[in-house]
Amino acid sequence: EKAGFEHFMMKEIHEQPKAVRDTLNSVVKDGRIDFKEMQISDEDLNKYEQIYIVACGSAWHVGMAAQYVLEDLTDIPVRVELASEFRYRKMPLNQKALVIVVSQSGETADTLAALRLAKEKKLATLAIVNVVGSSIAREADHVLYTLAGPEISVATTKAYSAQLAAMYCLAVQFARVREKITEEQYSFYISELLSIPEKMEKVLEDKERIQWFAAKYANAHDVFFVGRGIDYAISLEGSLKLKEISYIHSEAYAAGELKHGTISLIEQGMLVIGVLTQDELYEKTISNMLECKSRGAYLMGLTTYGHYEVEDQVNFAVYVPKVDEHFVGSLAVIPLQLLGYYVSVAKGLDVDKPRNLAKSVTVE
Ligand code: M6R
Q: Which residues cross the membrane (predicted)?
């Protein structure tokens, strides 16, 4: 049942190209995105003035990444909320908002409660869910299914990637319907989206390099992940993957925040992982990383092929293929998932069932 892999997590990491391909193929028809199945019309997509994305854990991280893509491609302001906060927060809600809840299981208690709250407030709701017929899928006005298949490992990988892909489709379709992008740009984005699965395969081919690095850092006590924009969102996910299954304390910071407090924690030999996939932000983030290096930190830089200057700046470089920058997080997250996995294996831990955690959190 593990298809020759030692753990479900590794099997699911390898199923990501398929999960993304299947999810994209379910909405991309003849080169166009088609949301007919979830009964959302172009008219609907035109009327929203605000988007709230509400979720927990990794699904919230998907929201954090999607926010940058949605806001950059469309004219709609996006707010990303932790479901456990949203449900108790008395915030003024825009009545012309779309509330997007994201959940692999479709049973997460806080996310379900947030969905019910949104419905009570008469807001339009859309659920991005993996489990067909789950509570969240049944109760939301519209459902966009991720086709990741059953996910067994507590640490999510393929569901996360499929959720990101679903979000990209929403962003591109919103952008086209609202005429924020031209027909040419629309086709370009769709072909870039369709290129993701193959590029993911390529990233997976390099896994031994990450395994080697993981063995070296298996005894680390603290790891920091930094990045700006989409790279920050990917850092959040990388950090959760590591801590969740390896029990190493790790934190993700928006790189610009380091000098507002966190840099005082940097000590000799500490690992700082920088995500550097956004060309415009590369210089800014690498300079924050170099400040850590001069205080003794060991640097891992995760960037795209072509940024070979990184070799002179960091101690360990990892590359992913290029794709339109809005979508590159789908590739950058994979080496970070692999890092969490290999560290956990090197420490002899229960990778698929980390202590104190459940696959689906049905209590608050
Ligand atoms: O089933 P959901 O997507 O609603 O679950 C949300 C979180 O509990 C989940 O993503 C959790 O953070 C994972 N264990 C992360 O790997």
A: none
Q: Output the pLDDT for position 40.
A: 87
* Cα separation values, 338 from 12, 332, 358, Å: 11, 11, 21
ipTM for the whole predicted complex goes beyond 0.95: yes
Q: Percent of the chain beyond pLDDT 90?
A: 91
pLDDT exceeds 90 at position 39 = no
State which of 80, 81, 102, 104 you would mutate to test the pocket of ligand 1, scoring each by most atoms of that ligand within 8 A of its C-beta: 104
Q: Is 260 exposed, middle or buried, given 0-12, 13-18 or 19+ CB atoms closer than 10 A?
A: exposed
**Residue 364, pLDDT score:** 86
| CA 67 – ligand 1 centroid, Å | 18
Centre of ligand 1 from the C-alpha of residue 156, in Å: 7
Pairing of strands 271-276, 50-55: unpaired
Helix (H) or strand (E) holding 330: helix 329-346
Binding site membership of 359 for ligand 1 (Cβ less than 6 Å):
no
**Length of the chain (residues):** 364
Asked about 90 being catalytic, the answer comes back as: no
- pLDDT per residue as tens digits for the range 183-193: 999 999 999 99
Tokens representing 303?
């960037």
> Could you tell me the two tokens for 192?
């870039």
Q: Is 59 in the pocket of ligand 1 (CB under 6 A)?
A: yes
Cβ of 58 less than 6 Å from ligand 1: yes
Report the separation in Å between the CA atom of 57 and the middle of ligand 1, taken as the mean of its atom positions. Answer: 5
Distance 257 CA to ligand 1 centre (A): 26
